[in-house]
Amino acid sequence: MSTILKVENIRLNEKFDSKYDAIKMAGELLVAGGYVNAHYIEEMVKREDLSTTYIGNDIAIPHGTESAKNDVLDSGISVIQVPEGVDFNGDKARVVFGIAGKNNTHLEILANIAVFCSDMDNVEKLVKAETKEEIMDLLGGI
Fold first, then answer.
1. Which domains does the chain possess?
2. 12-31: per-residue pLDDT in tens?
3. Residue 103 — very low, low, confident or very high, per pLDDT cuts 50/70/90?
4. For the PTS EIIA type-2 domain, which residue ranges apply (predicted)?
5. Cα–Cα distance, 68 to 88 (Å, whole number)
6. How far is CA 139 from the centre of its chain?
7. Measured distance CA(61)–CA(23) in Å, rounded
8. 39 is catalytic
């Protein structure tokens, strides 16, 4: 398992009043994991304001703007399970991935998540996972 996902970067059964609350938690988990500095969270919010990071299949992948690349300390992801969903501009995200990619690895990370989540069975497994370890096992290839 790559160190881009650590068990401490996963949250289960979260509820949010807004997508911004979800984005901030995703960013805070990245900060706590040592992947980004705190300024990156602001850049994640700015990126969402430019265009939604909802990608379909109940998945959102908030990440920083291009100008935030200096805020990235290491490549990493955070995963937040939101069984009831959180509204991303009219779309409901039930899994929110925060991502940070050092040296342009964010495109590879995005692609790996998108491929995995293109299968709704995989998304349902993430939403229904009862432990952080189940999520770690499911995302082992990312």
1. 7-137 (3.40.930.10)
2. 999 999 999 999 999 999 99
3. confident
4. 3-142
5. 22
6. 12
7. 9
8. no
